[in-house]
Specification:
It is a single chain. This protein is α/β, with parallel strands linked by helices and about 160 residues long. Strands 4-2-3-5-8 form a 5-stranded mixed β-sheet.
Length: about 160
């Protein structure tokens, strides 16, 4: 692909922070916004392609979990690591007003506010992981340690 890709806000923020990353485009399927589809498009191991989930805890409010694309976050574990008694997924209609991102294009980088972020521990098994660049059709390939540092995330077991 030789066409110049437009940088997303997430990419600009990483540039500003001096963090190395690669923008990787993929074909969007409006019928299948799953990370499994993204991994297949990228030709990458699904365990390396992470999805960003936004949750609401009963005590702390909004927080973010970043997990491998083929896994489901355990609400019980997510609540525990985030200091909540219970947690639930944020309703899809609340996603854009809360984070500035849409379903299928939610990045842990550059949300409207800095929410507490938890990244599943398997991220450290890879030299680089993929997360959404903030738009459908674009992923950030970034070193997990850099992503953890930038988002001030806690590495935890989330499933």
């Amino acid at each position: 692909m030789t066409a110049k890709m437009n940088k997303t806000n997430a990419a600009r923020l990483l540039d500003k922070a001096g963090i190395a990353y690669e923008l990787v485009a993929y074909e969007v399927d409006e019928e299948d916004l799953s990370a499994t589809h993204v991994a297949a498009q990228l030709g990458e191991d699904i365990g390396q392609v992470f999805k960003t989930l936004v949750l609401r805890g009963d005590r702390t409010g909004i927080f973010v979990c970043v997990v491998p694309g083929d896994e489901e976050v355990s609400l019980k574990l997510a609540a525990k690591v985030s200091g909540n008694k219970s947690a639930e997924m944020l309703h899809v209609k609340e996603l854009l007003p809360t984070t500035g991102y849409i379903r299928g294009g939610c990045s842990p980088v550059g949300m409207k506010k800095q929410f507490p972020t938890y990244i599943h521990s398997t991220c450290m098994d890879y030299d680089a992981i993929y997360v959404s660049a903030g738009v459908r059709g674009m992923q950030l390939k970034v070193a997990p340690g850099d992503l953890v540092a930038y988002t001030r995330a806690t590495v935890a077991d989330l499933f």
